[in-house]
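Ticket #4471: structure output looks truncated?

Reporter: J.K.
Steps to reproduce: submitted the chain below (379 residues) through the standard prediction queue, then opened the result file.
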Amino acid sequence: MNDVFITKAFTYLPNEPVSNDEMETYLGYINGAPSKAKAIILRNNKITTRYYALDKEGNPTHTNAQIAANAVKGLFDDKFRKEDMELLSVGTSSPDQIQPSHASMIHGELDMNKSLAINTASGLCNSGMNALNYGFLSVKAGVHKNAVCVGSERMSAWMTADKFNHEAENLALLEERPIIAFKREFLRWMLSDGAGAFLLEGQPREDEVSLKVEFIDFYSYAHEIEACMYAGTEKQEDGSLKSWADYPSDEWLKQSIFALKQDTKILDKYILVKGAESLRTSFDKHNLDPDTVDHVLAHVSSGYFKEGLKEEFANVGLDFPWEKWFYNLSEVGNIGAGSIFIALEQLMNSGRLKKGEKVLLCVPESGRFSYSCALLTVC
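Returned output as attached by the reporter:
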């Protein structure tokens, strides 16, 4: 089995950063009125800027595949040409279409004249880590000499007002208040667009920062907990999900069936506790001493969770001091499957890393509560 190294990383964020005050200029006003929940949600999530693949009229400027392809193109240089790529492994929770696969569409955007092995990981935030794991195992097993792994999102197109106006109109016809349910509106003020890409190879680069991938672990708690974040479906009273395919087509817009929704009640109950439980399991499995970790990159959807996450980790014997934590949520927003890629790229190219240091990655996914973690060594 081969050693595997992240030898280069690149981030692509579309257009200019969007401030809190500008958000509804891009996303629009549901039912023509400013959101009453927006200020509360932004105060808690502590995000100040984010990126949208939209112009100020709400028109798309990039597809998800184009955003991801731009991140991939940033990996090409005189040491790694486009023609050298053997595997493209990608993850997203917001593909541009149900089919073809996201990886197929990115490959098509790269203007290549060769075939590739491709892989698309589905899911939510952990789809990026699953894509990374596929590339890691492929290079480790010697199936491919290199792998390009990408986490990308274009959630802004899902959050424009026109996607919710039919539901608001339907509520008004029913003589109810035309206010979209909090579980639907909550995520409008959380999510951002962008992509991060890693190049994985069997050797580190000389005179450049490379990161050896020691392990990547995954944990699912779907056997214990019902779904928390979902789209293309609606949660029933018993906690089960009813698929969009089982609704009459005229209900898709009336109930915003395709909107991304989150059950915030069970989110608060489980997201941190299960994250700490899964990480403790990995530290025990690999017989790791938390004092040997130098940098902690934990993907959080909101600044609201930062203090609680540190506390829950400490409760299971993983008390990392604040100076070891690295966050960029407030500047780039929650980019779902791309967040951990973008945070690691920023740290990797910051000049802060020293040879021999250990970098811990932690990614939660509230879809039905799954988690991943990885340990990297600076070379």
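Triage note (M.O.): checked the attachment and the full token line is present. The domain at 212-378 is CATH 3.40.47.10 (Peroxisomal Thiolase; Chain A, domain 1).
Status: closed, working as intended.
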